[in-house]
Design goal:
Elements: H1 2-18, H2 25-53
């Protein structure tokens, strides 16, 4: 279940990193990219903790 959640986080985070919306401005896009990077880092920590427990 954790692996499935990590895959969803990676997909969502990658989508947010790759997306650029002109109406958000530079600050909005920066915040969106930071949230995407946070999702990807969260997925990495989930997978890493699963590997260490095995």
């Amino acid at each position: 279940m954790n692996l499935f959640f990590a895959i969803l986080l990676i997909l969502f985070g990658s989508f947010l990193i790759g997306l650029t919306v002109d109406s958000f401005g530079k600050t909005g896009n920066l915040i969106m990219h930071l949230i995407g990077i946070g999702c990807n880092l969260g997925a990495i920590f989930i997978v890493r903790s699963k590997i260490e427990n095995q």
